[in-house]
Amino acid sequence: SAYMSRQLTKLGVPRAKTHTFDFIETGYDRDFIRGYFDGDGSISFDKNQYDRVSISLTGNELIIDRINQIIQGQLDLKGFITTRRKETPNIKSLLYNGTHVCFKILDWLY
């Protein structure tokens, strides 16, 4: 709601945080990524692609790159990063495909 937006702005929460939000280095990387995934992630299941499972996260380039680095360091899995739209080149999606890969990430997160 407009009221809620104004109240959050008063508390210092930036507008359009997808474009400005950065990774918070706290020592709780996995917990942060789990919360981020809960808000801006998705799981897809495509029966037409041999029951292919996919995981994606969307955010600005800084946070997507950092999440990709952490997952690669922790799980030895490198994601595929794409630009969402030409109009917003700094907004990226981080994709992981395959049942084994996706379950490895979900087991680590949850």
What does the model show?
This protein has helices spanning 2-10, 17-20, 29-40, 61-75, 99-109, and strands at residues 41-46, 52-60, 80-85, 88-97. It has 110 residues and is α+β, with helices and mostly antiparallel strands. A four-stranded antiparallel beta sheet has the order 1-2-4-3. The longest helix is centred in the middle third of the chain and has 15 residues, at 61-75. The N and C termini lie far apart (31 Å). The mean pLDDT is 86.
Keywords for this entry:
46% helix; 110 residues; globular; 4-stranded antiparallel beta sheet; 28% strand; alpha+beta
Order of helices and strands: HHHEEHEEH
Oligomer: single chain
Shape: globular
Low-confidence stretches: none
Helix percent band: 40-55%
Biggest sheet strand line-up = 1-2-4-3
Number of helices: 5
What's the total count of β strands?
Answer: 4
Spatial extent as radius of gyration: 15 Å
Largest sheet: 4 strands, antiparallel
Secondary-structure blueprint:
Layout: H1 2-10, H2 17-20, H3 29-40, E1 41-46, E2 52-60, H4 61-75, E3 80-85, E4 88-97, H5 99-109
Antiparallel strand pairs: 1-2, 2-4, 3-4
Brief synopsis:
By secondary structure, the chain is of the alpha+beta class.
